[in-house]
Each structure stands twice: as structure tokens, then as C-alpha cells.
Amino acid sequence: MKDLSAFFFSGRGGGSVLRDLQLAIEIDGESHYGNPERDKKKDKRLKELGVTVLRFDDMEVVHQLDKVIEKIEKWIVDKTRP
Fold this sequence. Notes:
This protein is an alpha+beta fold. The protein has 3 helices and 4 strands. The chain has helices spanning 36-48, 58-63, 65-80, and strands at 8-10, 16-18, 23-28, 52-57. The chain has a 4-stranded mixed β-sheet with strand order 1-2-3-4. Strand 2 (16-18) and strand 3 form a beta hairpin. Residues 1-10 have low confidence and may be disordered.
């Protein structure tokens, strides 16, 4: 796996954005359950700024990390393919 740490910065609430690719990676846990409107508003604002949001459930990250990484890497490859 590639070291992508140079591209990340932590946002408020623990979100991360790949600056150069305009990608936000959200990992939702218990604090997100029952409050989808907050996420929709945040996603809408990021989209207006040209940022794509990839959203994952915390259990998906814990139990299927390889699949999460594959999805992120696929998005990066698709975005950077000439």
C-alpha cells in the first residue's frame, strides 16, 4: 500500500481530505446514526466546493479494511487516469 499521508489533513470531527484530489473520506460511527441531515448538508457543501465524499461506516473499516482501501485506491486511480 502506498503512503498517502502527505496528502491528508484532518478536518473538524475527524474527517480527512485528500487536498490535491479534492477527496473527503468520512468514517461514520455512532455519532452519525440518526442524524443523516447533518451529513447531507456537509456533503452538499463539499460538493459545491468540488470535493468528492467517500463515506464509510466504522464497522466496515474495522472488519473490511482491505475493501475500503480498494475503493479509495480505485477512486484515486480513476480520478488521476489521463
